[in-house]
């Protein structure tokens, strides 16, 4: 009997337990239904989506794609940490802020600072009230400075300031008034805006996305395609997927391998559906009406690759700075890229203000290119590692293989110019290796000019050869023109150095043991010449040409000139014959470099050096040292050699 009643009691308890479990399951189902309905509603809501609630909700299948980029063409030649994107996504733990007292806005693992919301830590109670406030303020100011510095360190820009700026901020109007009267075709092609990112800050990435959504007409915007190039930062994982799931027309794909800037764009292009690809950096802000003029040009000629005028966002203040028109993209003999603004060229003709200008190269920040043309011309070179010079390679290839490039003035997009790159490269010389690929593939015999001015690349090239077989095959099959054609037809403004033996190289001073150099910060303006230790990198390379000019700088656009008895650099003349003020003659036997107009000799003075050794000369020479014109003597200070770090073989 007791046995029977115990069995009944156990059965009853089991039944209760089952009922309890059933009830729990029903409640859970009902709750999850409620949540997903909430989510659907929130999609219909107008206005920007809020920063996501910290909860993992599965994404719709087509929203986020984890791309197994096994295609060898997309793979990198360097070892990077294997991707754990999915696993990390699943492991990502974002603590809920609901119910906590101070409820700080959290994003990934760091706090978002709102102006005036910071709270101080305890300060000694002995201070008077006002003093205490001051002390707290000082303390907070210090903390804030520290945070800003840490942010600059991490991203290369002041992310604390960026966080305070709206994701929808409006840029001041900087387009030429003539642009407002421009008419564009009603049937423009559709665009996929491909935004690759690697460990981008939240605010800059999302401001880029919103800026596109806020400015591009919906009928032309096929999609915004975000491509995650194996980011590691927590905020770019589940939180980003969730945020993006609320944005109409935005897709996110993730690579399982680090592809680099070019490879990532090629991947995005393969997944994009728009007729025109607009590659955009992950820290840009678009001016109103930026898209239509780009699409118009590409629609008129599918082989034209275009860029907006790139305005500049300051990395410290996030101030927007308009770039002066006309501007075009160029590169120098070290294969470094510049936007060249040339206000002297500005014409009063209003037509010119809206007319695109041909550009020998385009920057990597924003370019628009027909999708089919991009594919047929060979996408980005898959041999280019991580970052650097891939846009120069694209530029030379587009021009040489039948296309053209332009800057379109009625389109303006601002790019955040960073203080430094935030990436840690596994290979320190990868930029040189990318440049070596360009030299080997595209520059024919002109590559020697590059190697003399970028000697590190020369030394790397001596011990290894780039594998460019595929690219050479592509070049042949496309029937691309040679570099001589590019230089003479597309970029005739680039001075072609003669680099004659014994008349080019580092200008070595026998008397001081240093090399002539100039302040590089002054760019194309030149300035006083100085004597500094020889660099051996090619940065001090100069070229005494058959015109008698001593050409300096990686563009060869600065000439050895005189200002009183000072020897300076100034922009070289664009017309022949060269004025005798800029002409020099090198006397090999004595090592003298004679200024043709004055018949005086180039003399080196070390900083402060002469003041002690010869008080009589103290009045003649300023203490700063530098290069001067003096009566010719046989003093070692007037003896020079052109030292060639890279021998001009066969030149
Ligand atoms: N990028 C990338 N993978 C990389 C390096 C860069 O996807 O390995 C992205 C980066 O996030 C940016 C774009 O490529 O959107 C261009 O890089 P970055 O802005 O650093 O170049 P910069 O404008 O400074 O020359
Ligand atoms: Mn950039």
TrEMBL record:
Q: Which residues form the Ricin B lectin domain?
A: 504-643
Q: Which InterPro entries match?
A: Galactosyl_T_C, GalNAc-T, Glyco_trans_2-like, Nucleotide-diphossugar_trans, Ricin_B-like_lectins, Ricin_B_lectin
GO molecular function terms listed in the Swiss-Prot or TrEMBL record: carbohydrate binding; polypeptide N-acetylgalactosaminyltransferase activity
So which residues are the signal peptide here?
A: 1-30
* SMART domains in the record: RICIN
What Enzyme Commission number does this protein have? Answer: 2.4.1.-
Leading EC class: transferase
Tell me which PROSITE patterns the record gives: RICIN_B_LECTIN
UniProt biased composition (Basic and acidic residues) = 38-47
Instruction: Report what the protein is called.
Output: Polypeptide N-acetylgalactosaminyltransferase
Organism classification, top ranks? Eukaryota, Metazoa, Chordata, Craniata, Vertebrata
């Amino acid at each position: 009997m007791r046995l029977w009643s115990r069995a009944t009691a156990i059965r009853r308890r089991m039944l209760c337990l089952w009922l309890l479990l059933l009830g729990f399951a029903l409640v859970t189902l009902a709750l999850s239904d409620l949540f997903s309905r909430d989510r659907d509603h929130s999609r219909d809501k107008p206005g920007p989506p809020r920063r996501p609630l910290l909860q993992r909700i599965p994404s719709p299948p087509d929203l986020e794609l984890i791309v197994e980029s096994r295609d060898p063409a997309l793979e990198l030649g360097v070892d990077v940490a294997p991707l754990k994107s999915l696993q990390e996504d699943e492991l990502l733990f974002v603590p809920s802020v609901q119910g906590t007292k101070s409820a700080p806005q959290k994003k990934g693992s760091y706090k978002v600072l709102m102006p005036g919301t910071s709270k101080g830590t305890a300060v000694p109670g002995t201070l008077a009230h006002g003093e205490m406030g001051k002390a707290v303020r000082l303390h907070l100011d210090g903390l804030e400075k520290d945070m800003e510095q840490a942010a600059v360190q991490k991203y290369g820009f002041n992310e604390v300031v960026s966080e305070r700026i709206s994701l929808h901020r409006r840029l001041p109007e900087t387009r030429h008034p003539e642009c407002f009267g421009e008419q564009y075709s009603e049937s423009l092609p559709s665009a996929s805006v491909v935004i690759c990112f690697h460990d981008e800050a939240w605010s800059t990435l999302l401001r880029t996305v919103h800026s596109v959504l806020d400015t591009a007409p919906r009928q032309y915007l096929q999609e915004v395609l975000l491509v995650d190039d194996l980011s590691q930062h927590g905020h770019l994982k589940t939180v980003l997927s969730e945020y993006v799931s609320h944005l109409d027309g935005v897709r996110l794909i993730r690579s399982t391998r680090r592809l680099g800037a070019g490879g990532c764009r090629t991947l995005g292009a393969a997944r994009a559906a728009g007729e025109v690809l607009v590659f955009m950096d992950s820290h840009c802000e678009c001016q109103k009406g930026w898209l239509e003029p780009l699409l118009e040009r590409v629609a008129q000629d599918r082989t034209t690759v275009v860029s907006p005028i790139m305005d500049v966002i300051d990395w410290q203040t996030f101030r927007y700075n308009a770039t002066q028109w006309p501007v075009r993209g160029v590169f120098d003999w070290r294969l470094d890229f510049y936007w060249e603004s040339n206000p002297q060229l500005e014409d009063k003709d209003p037509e010119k203000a809206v007319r695109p200008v041909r550009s020998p190269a385009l920057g990597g920040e924003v370019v628009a290119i027909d999708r089919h043309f991009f594919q047929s011309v060979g996408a980005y070179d898959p041999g280019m590692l991580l970052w650097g010079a891939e846009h120069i390679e694209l530029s030379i290839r587009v021009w040489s293989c039948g296309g053209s490039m332009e800057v379109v003035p009625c389109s303006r997009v601002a790019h955040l110019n960073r203080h430094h790159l935030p990436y840690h490269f596994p290979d320190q010389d990868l930029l040189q290796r990318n440049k070596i690929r360009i030299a080997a593939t595209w520059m024919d015999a002109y590559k020697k000019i590059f190697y003399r001015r970028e000697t590190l690349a020369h030394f790397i090239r001596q011990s290894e050869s780039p594998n460019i077989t595929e690219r050479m095959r592509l070049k042949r099959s496309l029937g691309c023109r040679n570099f001589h054609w590019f230089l003479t037809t597309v970029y005739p403004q680039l001075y072609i150095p003669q680099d004659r033996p014994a008349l080019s190289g580092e200008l070595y001073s026998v008397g001081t043991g240093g090399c002539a150099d100039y302040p590089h910060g002054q760019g194309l303006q030149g300035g006083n010449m100085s004597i500094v230790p020889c660099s051996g990198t090619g940065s001090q390379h100069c070229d005494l040409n058959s015109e008698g000019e001593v050409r300096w700088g990686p563009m060869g656009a600065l000439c050895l000139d005189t200002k009183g008895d000072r020897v300076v650099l100034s922009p070289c003349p664009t017309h022949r014959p060269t004025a005798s003020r800029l002409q020099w003659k090198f006397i090999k036997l004595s090592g003298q470099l004679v200024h043709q107009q004055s018949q005086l000799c180039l003399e080196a003075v070390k900083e402060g050096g002469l003041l002690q050794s010869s008080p009589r000369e103290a009045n003649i020479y300023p203490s700063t040292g530098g290069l001067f014109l003096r009566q010719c003597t046989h003093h070692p200070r007037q003896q020079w050699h052109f030292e060639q770090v890279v021998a001009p073989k066969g030149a």
